[in-house]
Specification:
Elements: H1 2-27, H2 33-44, H3 56-76, H4 90-108, H5 112-135, H6 149-172, H7 180-200, H8 206-223, H9 227-245, H10 251-268, H11 270-288, H12 292-298, H13 309-328, H14 335-355, E1 365-366, E2 380-381, H15 383-397, H16 401-429, E3 434-435, E4 441-442, H17 461-480
Antiparallel strand pairs: 1-2, 3-4
Helix pairs in contact: 1-2, 1-3, 2-5, 3-4, 4-5, 4-8, 5-6, 5-8, 6-7, 7-8, 8-10, 9-10, 9-11, 10-11, 10-13, 11-14, 13-14, 13-17, 14-15, 14-16, 14-17, 15-16, 16-17
Length: 485
């Protein structure tokens, strides 16, 4: 009965907000930034109803409904008072964030997670658009030329106030309260990071990244605060800053990397978290190794340059899913930790196989049929590349020794090398390839809208990386879950 009452109040509240916004839009002769942000801010206050739900299905039902409603409204302009005249998916992302944060917060019993995330989104991003538009003349961010300094500080201050207030409320009811200075540090770090997230958001993506990023980071730090965690994040931030200055990672790549690092430390522990940093360092180092042979091969490859958020997630998402699954299922099975480390061993093995393998002048052949292939083509392997992949996996597997001993090292080493082999197989059979000017296949298209000559059009190098790493995690779980480590 309590769920039904909470659902009824939720629907009545949100419909009332939409109705009032429609009236305001009519009085103003159409939708405006004010009416959109009116909806944006007040809908976020729905999160105060979340603690009254007693079942997961009821918690996520309202956000799920509005994912569908907002998708239809975007296409057919059903609720004109909250739509822009563009193809931005911001309203849909907002509902997805509500669904994710309320659901995860309920399962983990982290009620501050949806409160901080959604209230920061509602007030921080909502007020930033209004205040920034009116007073935001200075726009000093080269990677976000449309974002103002005033808007940035509006998000930072709003997030700081929201996170500090929410943490203080829960701190009063906690059996193990945090000292106020720690709460202040967490709020400040979360506010600054959230302001940076908002700068990187494009086409409404900040409606997803801001609430999830702020809610997760504040919750991770509050529920799992330690000096080690703080030092780890400081080290991760320093490494990412250096990488950014050296043009090795993009702004949105930094956001994805920080959230991944915090997740891995929270649910996987220090050695899994260090695996991410070691992989990033080794991968960046190997990509900087150059000679004329490698330079020639790189001209025909699909991707190059700085790592963006897609590349970060495609190389770390299976590890993140593994530790999240362990936390959600409330299991202490160490296999999930080992699987996360094996994912990074596989990612490093693949990176070494490619980056170091292209330095060598030996024969490159198709891993499926043994035919000679152009250097740098996905699916092509060499004996030098195999040796480099084994080396990369071994280096990453060293981090398994402290927690799992020699057995863990061997398992991680084998799964890592297995992952590089699977990556080559998928690269040979599924990844899209184009006909070059010389008539040979290559990974990179030579003109816009060129159709692939081989492989599947939607399978990119990132897709292959993601699939191969999920196969590593799944294979490892099928083999080793239930076995003593």
């Amino acid at each position: 009965m309590q769920n039904m009452v909470a659902l009824g109040i939720s629907m009545a509240y949100i419909l009332a907000v939409i109705f009032v916004s429609g009236v305001i839009a009519k009085l103003k002769n159409g939708s405006s930034e004010f009416t959109r942000k009116f909806v944006h801010i007040l809908v976020g206050n729905w999160v105060f109803i979340v603690p009254f739900f007693t079942d997961l299905w009821a918690v996520v039902l309202i956000p799920f409904i509005f994912i569908i409603v907002n998708s239809l409204s975007l296409k057919y302009k059903l609720i004109s008072s909250m739509e822009r005249n563009d193809d931005s998916l911001g309203t849909v992302y907002y509902a997805v964030a509500m669904f994710f944060l309320s659901g995860i917060g309920f399962v983990l019993n982290w009620l501050m997670l949806p409160l901080i995330g959604l209230l920061t989104m509602a007030y921080g991003d909502g007020l930033a658009a209004i205040i920034g538009k009116k007073w935001g003349r200075k726009k000093p961010f080269p990677f976000a030329p449309e974002k103002s300094l005033v808007g940035f500080f509006t998000v930072v201050i709003s997030c700081l106030i929201v996170s500090l207030a929410v943490m203080f409320y829960f701190n009063l009811r906690s059996d193990f309260p945090r000292p106020f200075p720690i709460l202040a540090v967490i709020a400040l770090v979360t506010g600054l990071f959230t302001g940076f997230i908002e700068l990187t958001g494009k086409r409404g993506c900040d409606n997803l990244s801001v609430p999830i990023g702020s809610g997760l980071l504040a919750s991770f730090l509050y529920y799992h605060w330690s000096l080690g965690f703080a030092l780890y994040l400081l080290a991760a931030g320093s490494i990412l800053y250096i990488a950014y200055k050296k043009r090795s990672i993009t702004e949105d790549g930094i956001v994805a990397a920080v959230l991944t690092a915090a997740t891995l430390y929270t649910f996987g522990g220090i050695w899994v978290a260090l695996s991410l940093l070691l992989f990033f360092i080794l991968g960046s180092f190997s990509s900087k190794l150059k000679n004329s042979t490698k330079a020639e091969a790189e001209r025909t490859q699909e991707q190059g340059g700085r790592r963006n958020w897609k590349q970060v997630l495609c190389n770390s998402l299976p590890a993140t899913v593994s530790v999240w699954f362990s936390a959600m299922m409330k299991t202490d099975n160490p296999v999930f930790t080992l699987l996360a480390m094996s994912v990074f061993a596989a990612a490093c093995a693949d990176t070494f196989s490619s980056e170091v393998g292209m330095l060598c002048k030996g024969r490159v052949f198709n891993i499926i049929n043994g035919k000679t292939l152009p250097r740098g083509l996905s699916g092509g392997v060499s004996f030098c590349g195999f040796l480099a992949g084994l080396t990369g996996s071994a280096l990453m597997s060293l981090l398994a020794l402290p927690a799992f001993g020699v057995k863990g090292f061997v398992i991680t080493l084998c799964l890592g090398f297995f992952g590089s082999v699977i990556d080559s197989i998928l690269g040979s059979t599924l990844q899209r390839k184009y006909e070059g000017l010389n008539g040979l296949l290559q990974d990179k298209a030579i003109y816009i809208n060129q159709l692939p000559a081989a492989g599947l059009n939607f399978v990119t190098n990132n897709t292959v990386n993601l699939l191969s790493l999920f196969i590593v995690a799944l294979t490892g779980s099928l083999i080793f879950i239930g076995m003593p480590l």
